[in-house]
Amino acid sequence: MAEDDSQSQELATVRELCANGVCMRTTDVEAKLDEGNIQEAESSLREGLSLNFEEARALLGRLEYQRGNVEGALRVFDGIDLQAAIQRLQPSVNENSNSSSFSSYSTSISSHKKGRANRDSQPAVSQHAASLVLEGVYLKAKSLQKLGRFTEAAQDCTNVLDAVGRIFPQGIPGVQVENRLQETVSQAVELLPELWKQAGNFQEAMSAYRRGLLHLWNLDNDCCARIQKAFAVFLLYSGLEAGPPSLGAQVDGAYVPKNNLEEAILLLMVLMQKIHQGIIQWDPSVMDHLTYALSLCSQTPVLSKQLEELKPGVLHRIDRWNTLALCCSGAGQNKYALNLLRKSLHKHERPNDLTALLLAAKICSEDSHLAAEGVGYAQRAINNAQGVDGHLKGVGFRMLGLCLRQLAKIALKDSERFHLQSEALIFLNAAISLEPDNADIIFELGVQYAEQRNLNAALHYAKKYIDVTGGSVLKGWRLLALVLSAQHRFSEAAVVTDAALDETAKWEQGPLLRLKAKLEISQSRPMDAIETYRYLLALVQAQRKSFGPMRIDSQVGDDKVNEFEVWHGLANLYSSLSHWKDVEICLKKAREMKPYSAKLLLTEGIMCQERGEIQEAMSAYINAILLEPSYAPCKVLISAMLSKMGSNSLPVARTLLSDALRIEPTNHKAWYYLGMIQKDDGRLTEATDSLRAAYILEESDPVESFRSLL
Fold it and tell me: Which InterPro entries did the record assign (predicted)?
């Protein structure tokens, strides 16, 4: 510890020992110590400086400790009876505490200075004696620490703080305690949790940290900040979950953290507040730990607020932009994040910052309209991933592959789409060659192959993903089940789904249960599917009781049990059974969750069409497209209806089908209706190709779109 080392260096240069207003040279005392005559050295100090036994031992031990004779110092310190010393010291110090009235601590500093001038010498002598004895016990703890006897050292350090608590039962009055006594107390408070950690007793270390921060030790700002930071680091990385602190009535009504993470965040936020107020110096590691802690609980907006409150010059503007971009991206504010990264990557700033390039490419890879820009960022990242950053080249290849996949979705020509999809696969395979166990790349390759209907390759990567993740990630099981369903291996897909349900927490079973219901429908077991949906609805009700109604809709991504999807799936099931009354009830329930939905309008349109209500069906499909212009299923059904209305409607139907295939190239119904229109036009070769594509895609169509995995 810095203060302790500086104190030792300072004391080591002193060649005199002083106490009670008297000084004596250390030469004679050191000579007797060198001869092993501890008793004579002690007697010399007691007579020369008017000290009692404990005070002389403490001073003598300090001298040995300063000379580097740790074992000799320990032999001297062992003779100190701390309890007896406290009993002698406590009355006089308490008298001083009572006479000065701790309640007057809130008065001006000048009044304390004036009061100090009027005190008699007895309190000062008592504090000096307390300082000598307590410092002796503290140095004994330091000696034991250097000898590796950590538990004994922690016990002695605890004795120091217990003694201070008995001497000053109302806490230490800062302006009335001499500097050396305050230094000893501060150092002991800081040392104690470190000793317990070195002893392997993490529960005691936790208690020592809380004791140090909750009691009135009169710690200076820097010392308190060091303890708060060390405690926060311990809470974050120790792996010990000790539960919330027991603060008692003294902070009644105050916020009490519920777990280690909340307590660590609270401590780090307090430190950041001190930095903002100029109470302590800027410490970048505090921001690093806070970034990690807030990322764990998805509270990056809180982190961005802390960054914005930093004074200019504390953090370089580019570092601030990049970290803010990361926070915004974590909060789903990709547009704002990308704008910050564009500033950071400007040619006059840091155009080759690898981390910023990769983050920008990642953001662009999630939006097909930004994918072309993302390709540029990814290529620059690959070019700059050299030397010590060479391990990030695989990340660059992955981002490039994802951006190319997004570009393929908006390609206008089939040839261009095929070329981009092939390029995406090339770069994803390049990424997996550099990072063969990267679960994210394995999953993305599996989905990419599945979308291109290379089901054997997709099955390989689905199984590999489950192996790499140990089956702990839900989407891996879903991918495997969907690939098996696309191969018409429904019974195996059902077994996989059941196995996944056994490994999945109750609130995360929603997607798996919906998938199970669809597999049961594919196996011509509609009544079993209805029972599965009923179980899902019961799960929704249980979830509502546990978390409240708002949690169902606002945090669907967390709970995975989406009531809207349940009612919509049940409506589709009843529609396939022509139970129209039940369909209407389910649609009504779903609209309570989401009033405007293209999915619901599609189901409503199918119901109307099956009942012969053609105009109502057409209106529902058109409204769905107006609500969601890129919703391909409605465009396909409108085209099917138009193709039956005569030759004048065929051009419109053909245009809608072409647009639907641009959005969903694997929509087998779109290929089928396009083939029928081409047949009516007399273009038999094109019709044959379209109908063949429709047949192949229908034979490899999963029970749920592979895109639902992304």
Answer: NPG1-like, TPR-like_helical_dom_sf, TPR_rpt
pLDDT of residue 506: 84
User: Is 601 a domain residue?
Assistant: no
Distances (CA, A) of 524 to 200, 512, 528, 579, 638: 61, 19, 9, 16, 28
CA distance 128 to 453: 85
Q: Which of these, 622, 543, 537, lies nearest to 573 by C-alpha position?
A: 537
pLDDT in tens, 623-653: 999 999 999 999 999 999 999 888 889 999 9
Beta bridge partners of 23: 18
Amino acid at 217: W
- Asked if 28 contacts 47 with a C-beta cutoff of 8 angstroms, the reply is no
Residue 478: predicted pLDDT: 96
Residue where one domain finishes, among candidates 294, 315, 336? 315
Q: Does a structural domain hold residue 702?
A: yes
Same domain, 287 and 154: no
Contact 291, 304 (CB under 8 A): no
Q: What CATH number does residue 694 fall under?
A: 1.25.40.10
Average pLDDT over residues 128-140: 84
Cβ(394)–Cβ(435) below 8 Å: yes
3-state secondary structure of 582: helix
- Per-residue model confidence as pLDDT tens digits over 558-616: 445 789 999 999 999 999 999 999 999 999 999 999 999 999 999 999 999 999 999 99
Short-list 512, 495, 492, 503, CA closest to 470: 503
CA distance 365 to 564: 28
For residues 439-463, average pLDDT: 96
**Beta-carbon count within 10 A of 511 CB:** 21
Q: What is the pLDDT of residue 121?
A: 39
Decide: pTM greater than 0.85: no
Question: Which domain range does residue 196 map to?
Answer: 15-88+127-216
List, in sequence order, every residue forming a beta bridge with 315; answer none if it has no partner: 312
Closest among 432, 428, 405 to 417, alpha carbons compared: 405
Residues 661 and 686 in one domain: yes
For 469-519, the pLDDT digits (tens) are 999 999 999 999 999 999 999 999 999 999 999 988 888 898 999 999 999
Q: Compute CA distances 23 → 125, 318, 552, 673, whole Å.
A: 15, 59, 77, 107
Integer Cα distance of 556 and 548 in angstroms: 12
